[in-house]
Amino acid sequence: MRRINIAACSLMLLAAASAPAMAQGNMGGMDPAQMVQRSTDRLMTGITLSATQSDSVKAINARFVTAAQGAMTGGDRTQMAAMRTKQRADLRATLTAAQQTVFDKNVADMEKARMNRPQP
Fold first, then answer.
1. Using CB atoms within 10 A as the burial measure, which of 33, 64, 101, 117 is most buried?
2. For residue 117, what is the DSSP state?
3. Measured between alpha carbons, how far is 120 from 117 in angstroms, rounded to an integer?
């Protein structure tokens, strides 16, 4: 009986300890739309968009979210990287030359931060 109790307690402890890790498997529980918006906010830091540009950014992100949802379920990092590159190119194309300079700096800063993150 004592062994069953120990086993049950161990199992409950293991389940409780792994719950936070499981919840954070997707960028802290964010859905793809939230992740895309967070990334876009960082990319557009210091850039003021016109109404037309804002509408274009929203349309680009909507396409990217739809495509990302499929790629995320498959876990294909290469496909995700290619889609992210296309999204950034599409976003950059909506900007003026002056805005593109700021955008390029923001991309470089994001990539630098990504490379400095500890790998799992």
1. 64
2. S
3. 9
What single letter denotes the amino acid at residue 61? N
Structure tokens belonging to residue 117: 């993150």
Q: Is the pTM of this model over 0.85?
A: no
Scored b (16 or more CB within 10 A) or e, 79-108 reads eeeebeeebbebbeebbeeebeebbeebee
Q: Which two tokens stand for residue 38?
A: 């967070």
Q: How far apart are CA 8 and CA 11, in angstroms?
A: 5
Tens of pLDDT, residue by residue, the chain (120 residues)? 555 545 444 445 444 444 444 444 444 577 778 888 888 888 899 999 999 999 999 899 888 888 777 776 666 778 888 888 999 999 999 999 999 999 999 999 988 887 887 766
Please give the Cα distance from 117 to 102 (Å, whole number): 23
Given a contact cutoff of 8 angstroms between Cβ atoms, the answer to whether 68 and 20 are in contact is: no
